[in-house]
Fold these 4 entries.
Entry 1:
Amino acid sequence: MNVRRSAAVLAAVAVLGAAAPAAADSSPSPTPQALPSALYGDTDPQYDGVWRQSLALLAQHAAGVEPPKAAVGWLTGQQCADGSFAPFRADPSAACDAKTMVDTNQTAAAVQALAALGGHDAVTDKAVGWLKSVQNKDGGWGYTAGSPSDTNSTSVVVGALAAAGEKPGEVRKGGRSPYDALLGLELPCTGKGAGAFAYQPEKDGSLTANADATAAGVLGALGRGLLVEPGKGDGAAAGSCVKAATPEQAAANGAAHLAGALAAKGYLLAATPGAEDQPDVGNTADAVVALAAQGETAQAEKSYAWLEKNAADWAAQSGPAAYAQLILAAHATGADPRDFGGTDLVKQLQAAGPAAPGKTTKAEDEAEDEKDSDSPFGVWWFVGVCLVAGIGIGFLISNRTKRQQP
């Protein structure tokens, strides 16, 4: 009996033990839909399927590994006729319509991955065309077409434009470029958060520093994507904040802010109101890439060393996109992702993909559990035994901890 089935049985025991007796529902449960075998990861792809697939392919390319053709084919097959991408389309043969939740981030990530792999110009050209068609009048992009511009979305689209051979500064709407939008989202050099980027303006128009947006904003202002080649920065150490009249200066200001935030402990803190301070591993990895792109190698390498000691468990819990983030951080700093504090990140990422022998998804495991339940010795028989012998089971359940993927 696998771990997931055991957990399901224990959860059922807890519910049955606490509830009043009720008539059992004899109707058959629907069989869970198995996830595509070409998809990286085994969690629900409804909100991040294309994003994590794109990062996985991009990271493998960075590590010198040719991704499985099935994985690449799955990604290209997710594109809508207008060039956009949704996070996940269960039936790619069905035409996209107004209910298909396409967005700029999935689309831009797919462009970056497919452009890096090469040979997919038809797909990337259509995607870039769609991205241009939904550019806002301030020059930036929001997460969905027509939504207010934000630093993260604008930056990932800039990376897609650059990867596809476009000059982002020449992609304009209403006379304004993506760089104009990013300059408008950077905090001034006075006061709290000097030089950082905000995600979006607050309701009153003020800007609040955001570490995740700052890491993205540095890359966007430099006209760079998620894949940063080592040694490609300008070599300038992050200095004091100077009023930004150019995207290059905005990037330098953002990098200086990140370097200052990382200097004390080597990592960024998770911004969770009311919670104890916790390291934000994902944002730290993104900050390492941003600092490397700017040429601030000293702090990038120090924070990467912190990741080597502390990020392996986080990646194992978080899945393919997390492994990809760490591989991209390793690549940006010139480190070996196959020797990440004793962990082979590339091998772990490949194990989450279609090339992994005997790989099963959570949905497939659940389907197998449902099949087992048809046996006279299936799940509910086991539940009954547990209830009869359930002395102390409440204590066991109350002390179990469940860690979810972020």
Entry 2:
Amino acid sequence: MRHPRPPQPPSPERSAELRRRFAEEARSERPDLSALCLLVGAEGDGSLDEAGLGAAQVELDRLAGELPFRPGTPRAWAEALRDLLGERYGFHGVGADYRRLESSLLHAVLRCRRGLPILLSVVWMEVARRAGAPVYGVALPGHFVVGFGAEPGLAGGSAGGVEERVLVDPFDGGRLLSGDDAEALVAGATGTTGAAGLTSSMLEPAAPLDVVTRVLNNVRAWAAGRPEQSAVGLWAIELALLLPSHAARLRYERARLLVERGEFLAGAGELEAYAEVVGVVDEAGAERVRGEARVARAMLN
């Protein structure tokens, strides 16, 4: 069975404009999660123009407008989102979605109502936020979910009541999660068992830029298993490098990817620049990277 071809990238001029806006939004005082995810989508899908970006935001607004007015408790909010998005509109995920690049692109998830856990969670969070719900993302290992209620650590976030915080799994249509359910999700991702596998730090709210970083990591992982899609891996790395905080090793990954794509001179230059940074703390490691750069330059002959 042949799989549909992934979406084609935008023009270089369009890409440059998208990246400028992405960097600007990421460095703003309050980064907008939906805007950032849609800009990622536009970088991955050249057919997403300005009208399409606006239409996706309008769709999120429309969905929020269909929620009941102020349902009440966190559980009531969670059930209202489940009823609307999971049951009425059929947003959910299946295993096959992990094989599709579109599962990491917000506009495509809004259109087909399928996607990875983190992108479905973005839909849940953005619709809920627009409706005034106390909502936040929770980056469990290997599986992103959504929390309703007072964020852990905030004033009032630990005062009694079993309905104070509720977790839901948008990948499973918005199923409300018990403590045992959350532990099972963590166990499935980490191999641990019981409550020891689920720590309080795992339940901390995920900041918008952390969510975007994880989305881009998913895109990079998708491309890494498909050498013919190295261009996708490259733009995902380059967007991640525009975030205010990123791993220095991303520059090494970008350099290696350039070499693998046959851009030997550019890759060698990037490797040498990375070696200069690494050399401050690890001269032996820097020398290994310089050796890779010499090999890359030799491939030009």
Entry 3:
Amino acid sequence: MANFAKPSAPRFSVEVYQNEFLPEGGRDVHAIVTVTSTGGAAATRAAATRGSAAVVIMVDCSGSMEYPPDKMRGAREATAAAIDTLRDGTAFAVIAGTHVAKEVYPGQGRLAVADAATRAQAKEALRSLSSGGGTAIGTWLRLADGLLRQSTATIRHGILLTDGRNEHEDPAVLRATLEACAGRFTCDARGVGTDWEVKEVTGIASALLGSADIVADPAHLTEDFTLMMENVMGKEVADVALRLWTPVGVEIQYVKQVAPTVQDLSDRRTEAGPRAGDYPTGSWGDESREYHVCVRVPAASVGQEMLAARATLLLPGAPGEPPATLAQGLVRAVWTDDLVASTAINAQVAHYTGQAELAQAIQQGLEARKMGDVGGATAKLGRAVQLASASGNADTAKLLAKVVDVVDAAAGTVRLKAKVADADEMTLETRSIQTVRVKKS
């Protein structure tokens, strides 16, 4: 684990944005908890000599990867580029995934240590990658987990590429594998082409606190893999937890990451003592994330106030040692008879509530469209257009415009397009959870 006594270590801060005022009898308190890590770039340079990262790249080598041939060729080139991006001292391995998982490099159940020689050997080994067989993603993840568990590295990460559905494995097996791997390593997942299942790929990334995306054109794989690996190399602190402590009588309604993506963490709570629970946030570099916390407090009279929750960012200590406190913020509740104060909606809370609704509207709209429910799809995607326009989410607005004809963005008036390319629909679904930051004055 990172030593936070060193000046090169990242520094964390927590800011809480909320309207703490409630009307008499009011109970629900909403807050946006902004967590920022700075100084990670310097820490990463210092970490280079410590070998603080371990990465396993899982490449789909099923038979469909040869149709068209540029998928397999693009996967080899992208993996080679990712290997070139590894900093010296990083532990790494490459897995070929079909209905079974095979070690491509270094083999014999171990990890290699990145340097000029091992990078060259790994890229040479990629020449053996060929397509054939089925798809059983759980086996790939289990092998990656076994390899990564050998490492004492701070950052343990997987990169997974697939072009098809998980057809040669029971869905329950993949779910069980994800549950077993959660908390042991993070994983970015990518779908190449348009024959894979969005919910499978995004589900893998969600369970393992990584990113998910589509690379419709294999020609763009190298750029995407390079950026992913650069991001991994920029991580320095892993296994950071957001602990929420609440007083007697206070109930946590939900905890969601809302930026840079929407991710519901509510069911990932781990009990951490009386009235306290930990929510995983994964690994960090130089970055900022935002979390929407909603708690229900006991009803109270005008003039009363209370601490509704305490948000603490924690880093696990060594075995037998308590976790280190990185930063802390407070969520308050104050009861008032001032109607203006109690009905005001905090700008950050309003913005991210809208972004979460935007993601849900897109997903529900696309599902309705697949089911042939024209009215439901039009209503949901129209609402999505309206929310994207109001929040300034230009990227999502552009993706929506490839699925619907926008008549009036402000009013949410749209018409479904008669024909939509599979890549456009899958891109919208995959990226629906990506949010924009609140516009701060």
Entry 4:
Amino acid sequence: MRKWVIAVPALLALGALLWWWQRPQPLPVTLLTVARGSVETLVANSRAGTLKACRRTQLSFNLGAPVGERLVEEGQRVVAGQVLMRLRQDDQQARVTESEARLLLQRNARSRQCTQAELDRRQVQRLSRLAERKLAAAELLDRTEIAARLSALQCEAAAAQIAEAEAGLALQRALLDQKTLRAPFAGIVAEINGELGEFVTPSPPGIPTPPAVDLIDDSCLYVEAPIDEVDAARVRLGMPVRVSLDAFRGQAFAGTVTRIAPFVRELEKQARTVDIEVRFAEPPADVVLLTGYSADVEILLEQRGDVLRIPSESLLEGRKVLRFDAAAGVLRAVEVQTGLANWRWTEVRAGLADGERILPSLEQEGLGDGATVTPLELPP
């Protein structure tokens, strides 16, 4: 009996010691203190958007000829009407000179014919006075009047020939001007395809060819981005937008929705989307924006300030969160009533109180309702 009295407490102590060493250890976790802030309902683009210029033109010639003059370089700024490139023009310039000489000849001919018509008119007047005094034959007066009418008709015909020559000269000058490429607006030359002496050909129907000059007006930029068709009905013109560019991470630019495409874009093996255009509220002055940058947009549909909020990733299935029970040192699942939400924050209308601590996310296994944890940090 004495042996049993000694052995039983020893076995119990050994069991208690084994349980103490093998007991589940509390998991260290970082908890988040529930606080108040602003929550927004957003619509984001489904694929990357693109920064585009309001005006961009790819200039080409409508006829083929060798390049005679290249007057600008890539990256150069130009003003409206500035000459960018000329084709070889000696043949067309000769036609213009020929038309100018023909016009001068027609004007000289008209001057002679109209002078003759004026002389014939005066001769008719003199013979008419002589015929009244019976000093000139009636037949001579008739021939003189007919000759005066013919001279007047030739003078009028010469005026029509001058108009024809002027039209021909205008045509030749227009053809000459087609061999000159001018900037339709002020901007920056993005690309030039054509060196001195190279033969430039117009683009045939259905066969795209590189433009002679690519001109961009970088004073006005906008973002074109596709959004999913299910979100398109909630977007309206004038809604505020936050624009972020991959080239400038961490910066957000304010903008406004200025255009919503009137159709749904259907691309093979891709979700159907609606294109929207966003203009910058104030173009950023401290960064250089280049056409073609990839961009993302967040359209602000609704916003509420000073509401209780939690990270959206902390929500579990059934709209539950893991709240830390400080008295027991465990996590307990509680159901919450939510309001506005986005990919980052979710509004909590009921189920939590300001200052309570929750698990921000399930980052490791073993965390769940009733899990024993040790809080490491309590960020606000």
